[in-house]
Automatic annotation (TrEMBL):
Domain named HTH luxR-type: residues: 603-667
Statement: the UniProt record of this protein carries the keyword Ribosomal protein: no
PANTHER family per the UniProt record, alphabetical: TESTICULAR SOLUBLE ADENYLYL CYCLASE, TRANSCRIPTIONAL ACTIVATOR DOMAIN
SMART domains, per database record: HTH_LUXR
Xref: Pfam families: GerE
Single GO term (MF): DNA binding
Organism phylogeny: Bacteria, Bacillati, Actinomycetota, Actinomycetes, Pseudonocardiales
Keyword Magnesium part of the UniProt annotation: no
Keywords linked to the UniProt accession: ATP-binding, DNA-binding, Nucleotide-binding
Organism: Pseudonocardia parietis
Protein name: DNA-binding NarL/FixJ family response regulator
Length: 667
C-alpha cells in the first residue's frame, strides 16, 4: 500500500475505536516507539482502569504492537496518527511530553527532542534542557544534533545571564558543521565578554572561523590583539594565539617576515604544554621551507603530535600542519598517521575535520602514488568544504590545485586543466596561491606550452622566494624543463644544479629524487637516474620512484644499453599500473617495447606491488579480521575490501586469505 492509502486505512480503523484508544494512540505517536505504557497513558490523560483496555483495542486494530513497551506496527502508521491532529495540538502535546519526561528525570536529549517541536515561550528550563542535550550530543560526536539543540535554546530566548554561554556553545558546535554561522555567533559572544582570558579563549575559535571562511588578515589580527590583552600568567594561552597568528601567514594573513618569530621554537625536545606543541607544529613546517632538514623537521612535527593533545585541540589546522610535515619529509610514519587521522575524523562527527582530512589525505596519497584513491579523497574534500562554507580562497584553491595534479599525473591533461579552473589564483603569497600557481606551471610544461610557462615560473620565484627549499612546489625544475625545450640548455642545467643543492639540504628522498630525475633526464645520465630510483625504493615517495625507474630505462635505451633498460622499464610498467597512472604506464610500456622487451604476463606482482590501501586491508586480514571488521576499521564498504583483497590475491599469486601470511613472509 502507498503512504496515503495506508494513512486512510489507519485513520478509518482508529475512528472506530473508543475515544480513550484514540487519545492513547496520539500520545504514543508523540512519544515515539519504546515509551512505557504508564507514560503514554499519563500523556493521554487516561486512568489506570482505562489504559489496559485502550492498549488492547489498539493492538487488535493492528495499530500498536503487542509488546511491553508501546510501539507502532509500522512507521507509516505512527506518521498517520501523528499528523491527524492540527500543528497547534501537536506542539502542545510535545510540550506536555517534555514536562512529563523532565518530571521523571529522563535523559536531557530525550526531553529536548520534544522541545524542538514546541514554539519558543521564553522559559529558562527549556534553555537549560537544550544546553544539556547539546552537551551530550557534542560528547558523542553528534555535531549536527548539538547545533540543533543550541539553536533551539537561542530561539527560546535564553535569559541574559545565559545568552553568551549559548552563543559560545553554538559557535563552537557550528565550527564543526557550518563555518559562516559559527563566525556570526562567536562574534556576538566575544563582544559580550569583558574578561581578557575569556575573550582569548573565544578568539581561538573565532580566529579559525574567520581564517577558513576567507578572512585570514582579520583572523591574524584577532589573535594578535587577544594575546596582547592577556595579563601575566597566561603564557600557554598566549603561545597558542601566537601559533595561530603565525599559521595565518601561510593563508596570506600577514607579512612572511613575521615567521622569523618561529626560530626559537625549532628546538628538540619540544617543551611540554599545548602552546609549545602548537608553535612546534608551525615551526616544523616553516623550517621545512626555510632551510631545515627533513629529519629534524619531521621529528619536530612528530613530537608536536605526541600524546594526542594537539590533534584533540586543533585537528583541522595545526594538527593537520604537523601531519603534512611528516608527508613532506617522506617520513615512514606518514601513511599510518594519515590513516589514523581519517579514522579519527569519522569518529568525531565534525564535517570540518572530515573535510580537512579528505583534502590533505588526498595530497598525501598523491605523493604515495595512490592516484585513484587520491582523486576520490580530494573530490570528497572539496564537496565537504562547500557544505561547511569555506571561503572562496583556501580549500577550494588547494583542492583545485591538488585535483589538477592528480589528473595530470594520471595522464588526463584536459581534465587537469578543467580542475585547475575550478578556482583562481588569489594573487598573494598564501599557501593556496602557491599550490595553484605551481600546478599551473607544471600543467603548462606538460601541455608543451613552454614559452607561457616561463613568466609563471618567474612570478612564483618572486612571490614565494622567501620559501627556500623546493619541498613540494619547486619553480626551478619546471622552469628548467621549459628552458631546455626552448634550446636554452645551459640555463636549464644551472637552475637544476641550484635546486639539487637545496633538495639535498632538505634531504627527503622524494624531493632529492625529483630533481635528480629531471637533471638526469636532461643530461641523459643513467647514474643520476639510478640514484633517484634507489633512494626512493621502499619509501612513501612511491610515485617518484616509479618515475625514476621509467626515466632510467628510457635513458639506458637511448644510450644503446637496451638489454639493461628492460628490467627498470618492466618494473616501471608494473608499479605505474599499481599507482593507477595510465599515462606513465603507456610511456614506460612504449619505451620497453622500443627496447625489445615485453611486460610480464602477470603485471604488478609481489608484496611490493600492493598499493597502500591494499597493504592496509591485507595487514588486517592476516590478523584474522573479517571483511566487515576491515570495512569498519578503514571506513570503507565491504565491497571495497573484497576488491582490495581480490587484487592482492592476484598480485601475490594466491587464492585465499589463508595463504596471505605465507606469501608475505616469503617476500
Amino acid at each position: 500500500m502507498g503512504p496515503r492509502s495506508a494513512a486512510r486505512s489507519v485513520l478509518v480503523r482508529l475512528a472506530r475505536l473508543p475515544i480513550e484508544a484514540v487519545r492513547m494512540a496520539r500520545a504514543a505517536a508523540v512519544l515515539g516507539d519504546g515509551a512505557a505504557l504508564d507514560l503514554v497513558a499519563d500523556l493521554a490523560g487516561i486512568d489506570d482502569e482505562q489504559r489496559a483496555a485502550a492498549a488492547d483495542a489498539l493492538v487488535r486494530a493492528e495499530i500498536l504492537r503487542d509488546e511491553p513497551l508501546v510501539g507502532f506496527v509500522h512507521p507509516l502508521v505512527r506518521d498517520a496518527v501523528h499528523h491527524d491532529v492540527s500543528p497547534v495540538e501537536r506542539a502542545q502535546a510535545h510540550r506536555r511530553a517534555a514536562r512529563l519526561l523532565a518530571d521523571r528525570s529522563a535523559p536531557p536529549e530525550r526531553i529536548a527532542a520534544h522541545l524542538l517541536a514546541v514554539p519558543p515561550r521564553g522559559e529558562p528550563w527549556v534553555v537549560e534542557t537544550a544546553l544539556a542535550a547539546a552537551g551530550v550530543a557534542a560528547r558523542t560526536g553528534a555535531a549536527d544534533a548539538a547545533v540543533e539543540h543550541l539553536r533551539r535554546a537561542l530561539a527560546e530566548p535564553p535569559p541574559a545571564a545565559l545568552r553568551t554561554e549559548v552563543l559560545l556553545q553554538l559557535g563552537r558546535a557550528e565550527l564543526l558543521t557550518r563555518g559562516p554561522d559559527a563566525v556570526q555567533h562567536l562574534l556576538e559572544a566575544s563582544a559580550a565578554l569583558a574578561d581578557p582570558g575569556a575573550r582569548a579563549g573565544v578568539a581561538q575559535l573565532l580566529g579559525r572561523g574567520l581564517l577558513f571562511t576567507g578572512d585570514p588578515a582579520a583572523a591574524a589580527d584577532l589573535a594578535r590583539r587577544a594575546a596582547a590583552e592577556l595579563p601575566p600568567g597566561h603564557e600557554d594561552l598566549r603561545a597558542r594565539l601566537s601559533a595561530f597568528e603565525l599559521m595565518a601567514v601561510f593563508f596570506g594573513g600577514g607579512d612572511p617576515d613575521t615567521l622569523r618569530r618561529l626560530e626559537p621554537h625549532r628546538v628538540l625536545p619540544v617543551p611540554d604544554g599545548l602552546g609549545a606543541k602548537m608553535l612546534a607544529a608551525v615551526a616544523a613546517q616553516e623550517w621545512a621551507y626555510a632551510g631545515g632538514s627533513s629529519e629534524v623537521c619531521a621529528e619536530l612535527a612528530r613530537q608536536a603530535l605526541d600524546g594526542g593533545a594537539l590533534l584533540a585541540a586543533d585537528f583541522e589546522l595545526l594538527g593537520m600542519t604537523a601531519l603534512v610535515t611528516l608527508v613532506l619529509a617522506d617520513s615512514e610514519a606518514a601513511p599510518a598517521a594519515m590513516d589514523a587521522a581519517q579514522a579519527d575524523a569519522h569518529r568525531c562527527g565534525s564535517l570540518f575535520t572530515k573535510a580537512a582530512v579528505s583534502l590533505w589525505r588526498g595530497f598525501a596519497l598523491l605523493r604515495f602514488g595512490e592516484l585513484a584513491d587520491a582523486e576520490r579523497s580530494i573530490r570528497t574534500g572539496l564537496d565537504e568544504f562547500v557544505q561547511w562554507g569555506f571561503g572562496d580562497v583556501g580549500a577550494q584553491v588547494h583542492g583545485a590545485a591538488f585535483l589538477s595534479a592528480v589528473l595530470r599525473e594520471r595522464g588526463d591533461l584536459p581534465g587537469a586543466r578543467r580542475a585547475l579552473e575550478l578556482a583562481h589564483d588569489p594573487g598573494d603569497a598564501s599557501e593556496a596561491a602557491r599550490y595553484w600557481s605551481h600546478h599551473r606551471l607544471e600543467l603548462l610544461v606538460a601541455e608543451g606550452r613552454l614559452a607561457q610557462a616561463l613568466p609563471v615560473a618567474d612570478d612564483a620565484a618572486r612571490r614565494f622566494g622567501f620559501l627556500r627549499h623546493p619541498v613540494d612546489t619547486p619553480w626551478r625544475s619546471p622552469r628548467a624543463v621549459a628552458l631546455h625545450g626552448l634550446g636554452r640548455h645551459d640555463e636549464a642545467l644551472a637552475l637544476l644544479a641550484d635546486e639539487l643543492d637545496l633538495a639535498r639540504a632538505w634531504g627527503a628522498p622524494g624531493t632529492v629524487a625529483r630533481t635528480l630525475r629531471i637533471l638526469g633526464t636532461l643530461r641523459r645520465d643513467p647514474d643520476q637516474l639510478r640514484t633517484a630510483a634507489e633512494i626512493t625504493a621502499g619509501t612513501p615517495a612511491r610515485l617518484e620512484h616509479v618515475k625514476a625507474l621509467a626515466a632510467l630505462g628510457a635513458a639506458l635505451r637511448h644510450s644503446g644499453r637496451v638489454r639493461e633498460a628492460r628490467e627498470p622499464l618492466r618494473r616501471a610498467v608494473e608499479l605505474a599500473e599499481a599507482c593507477s597512472a595510465p599515462g606513465l604506464v603507456d610511456h614506460a610500456r612504449t619505451e620497453l617495447y622500443a627496447a625489445g622487451g615485453r611486460a610480464r604476463a602477470t603485471a604488478s606482482t609481489g608484496p611490493a606491488s600492493l598499493t597502500a590501501s591494499e597493504r592496509r586491508v591485507v595487514g588486517l586480514a592476516v590478523h584474522g579480521a573479517t571483511n566487515r571488521d576491515i570495512a569498519q576499521a578503514l571506513f570503507v564498504t565491504p565491497k571495497t575490501v573484497e576488491l582490495h583483497l581480490s587484487n592482492a590475491y592476484r598480485k601475490l599469486a594466491i587464492s585465499s586469505r589463508r595463504e596471505l601470511a605465507g606469501a608475505l613472509a616469503t617476500a
